[in-house]
Amino acid sequence: MTLLLERPAPVSQRHGRGFWLIAAVYLVALAFSTVPTPLYPLYQRTDGFSAFTVTVVFAMYALGVITSLVLAGHISDWTGRRRILYASLALEILAGVLFLTWTALPGLIVARFLTGLGVGMLTATATAYLLELHKAHRPEADGTRFEVVSSAANLGGLGAGTLVAGALAQFVTTPLRTPYVVFLILLALSVVAVAAAPETVDAPATRPRYRPQGVRIAGRDRVAVVVAVVSAFAAFAVFGLFTSLAPSFVAGALHHPSRLLAGLTVFVVFGAGAASQAVSGKIAPRARFVGGLIAQATGLIVLTAGMETASLAGFLIGGAIAGAGAGILFKSAVGTIAVNAPVAQRGESLAGLFLIAYSGLVVPVLGLGVATRYVPSTTSILWFTGIMLALLAGVASLGLRRGR
Q: Distance between CA atoms of 236 and 243, rounded to whole angstroms?
């Protein structure tokens, strides 16, 4: 009788499976981070807090992301990718438990901060991990698959979280509980997925001395780095608008209180961003950069017109166009930093990029929140659009000058 022993999968196949497992983990973790977005109007009605309070809650999430990026976003370069992903998923699971058990405003703030800590640890680590798994699986291939999948997992996850949460909140009897239960199950499965993926970082013989992450982004072309980080900041400012105040605008100024619609509104923006990243891979870098700038600027103008005329269609169309442009700009930024950074500093450099990008979630949105206390939401959006158009014009000038 002959025993047939199962042969271990070749290294390249293991890395190929690991690539898709980590992409799924990335998507689930980012989706969980936007679950509260379509629920904010419900929280407002339950606890009676204002749109400004929503921006404070959202800012605590962004503060958590930035804190985590500063303290731990870079250490996976020597501790290993999987260890950091385990820690980030543990923080998100803890946040999910808090969402279920501590439903008052202080609990919401703490849970959002913990979610931000988990996302900050995960974003740069998962992006670097996907690049390394891609290269190990397909050493001769270019980086198109990595760019499309990593960006789609990021933006697609952010959009999917709002859509799933909005749909569940619309049709279940416990809208502030069921979405978190569903995602706690998915996060637990994500831990299993990380365990099944191969590690790509060899621990150095001498561990580097720990230091917090500064805004250090390696790369010889400093102008390209500046263009990348400012583009990422501008892109995330648009995403921050939709993951914080957009559902309240739709329910208030546009008079559409549906929870499903609140989730769909945010999904449209992130879905457009993910789709534009997927279809723009074959476009020349210069044309892609210009197209992203034009689309984001145009979308902001259409979105503002929709708010001024109380047109939901105009608001959604403008959001989709702006989201598509932001997606292209962010994809270009990630690709620029990932390719130009030395291997030993790739995680650190991506952490620096995400650190600046996530500051784009905090500053403009807090400004919007403050403005809504003194002026109508339509006026605050008009100011936001004017500032963003000026920033995009500056990015265009610097980027096109470098191209020449």
A: 10
- For the domain that residue 190 is a member of, what is the CATH number? 1.20.1250.20
Q: How many domains does the chain have?
A: 1
Range of the domain at 167: 11-198+214-403
Position 294 in a domain: yes
Instruction: Say if 107 falls within a structural domain.
Output: yes
> Does 363 map to a domain?
yes
The band of 188, judged by pLDDT with boundaries at 50, 70 and 90, is very high
pLDDT in tens, 86-124: 999 999 999 999 999 998 899 999 999 999 999 989 988
Nearest partner of 296 among 267, 261, 272, judged by Cα: 272
User: Under 8 Å CB-to-CB from 92, ≥6 apart: which residues?
Assistant: 29, 32, 33, 114, 115, 118, 119, 187
Is this prediction's pTM over 0.70?
yes
227 within domain boundaries: yes
Q: What is the pLDDT of residues 225-235, one digit of tens each?
A: 888 889 999 99
Q: Please, what is the end-to-end C-alpha distance for the chain in angstroms?
A: 73
Q: How far apart are CA 189 and CA 280, in angstroms?
A: 32
Tokens of 278: 């997927």
